[in-house]
Amino acid sequence: MVEPTYILVHGAWHGAWCWRDVGAMFDERGIAWRAIDLPSSHDDGEGSNDLEVDCTALVKMASGVGPVVLVGHSYGGAVISDAASRIPALEKLVYVAALIPRLDESSTDASRVVRIRTALDEAMVVDGPYVGLEPALVVDALYHRSSSSTQAWAAGRVGRQTLASFRSPRRSPDPKVVRRYVLCRDDRAIDPSVQAIMAGRCDEVLAIDSDHSPFLSCPDVCVDAILRTDN
Predict the structure, then answer these.
(1) Which of 36, 121, 153, 203 is the most exposed place for a label (fewest CB within 10 A)?
(2) Residue ranges per structural domain of the chain
């Protein structure tokens, strides 16, 4: 039996860099993995880069890899949902504090299923076709449970995100694979009440005591939640 490759899909404002600790733990366990840099999150990317552009990049990365498990964090949940039906070798979807828009819904639509303002909302700054984050508010919104050194490391790497990525609708139906949701109970970016609704769209739910970024604040717990009984 061929073991799957885990493809890690970051959320808005991030990049493959955010999976640093998870990747190291996967390496220790001999688990194959890849992490993508989404076009919508590149500081030098086109302002028109939307969900479809991100999905195309993910499908390209997954092509020819063999069996894969897609892991999506935050906005990355929309990306793996929309790309899933285009990846024949897909085995499972894992959502980490993620948005799961329904067909023809955008990430923004999914985030508003419960009208509650979060620390992430307070941090957002719109700049033309992009959305940035106020540097002084990034840590409280995304990394408040991480060590001070990790907070500084991550906050220094946060970039811009295109508005188009948040506003573009999902176009692909749900795949016929198991979907697992990892709910973060101390999340200040996507409120746990929103996550609970997203989790209701999945087959399996696992709640952990974490902020919005468990891959940095508690990577061992994050890895165990992603893998669970897979290995």
Answers:
(1) 203
(2) 5-227
Give how far Cα 170 sits from Cα of 9, 13, 152, 179, 198, Å: 16, 19, 34, 17, 15
Question: CA 38, CA 107: separation in Å to the nearest integer?
Answer: 15
pLDDT tens-place string over residues 211-220: 999 999 999 9
Q: What is the pTM of this model?
A: 0.97
How many residues can be counted in the chain? Answer: 231
From the list 226, 228, 177, the residue with the least C-alpha distance to 203 is 177
pLDDT digits (tens, 9 = 90+) for 96-127: 999 999 999 999 999 999 999 999 999 999 99
> Strand order of the sheet with strand 161-162?
124-127, 130-133, 161-162
The secondary structure of residue 124, as a DSSP letter, is E
| Beta strand residue intervals within the chain, DSSP E | 5-9, 33-36, 68-73, 90-96, 124-127, 130-133, 161-162, 178-184, 204-208
- The CATH class of the 5-227 domain is alpha beta
**Strand partners of residue 71:** 8, 94
What CA–CA distance (Å, rounded) separates 85 from 105? Answer: 16
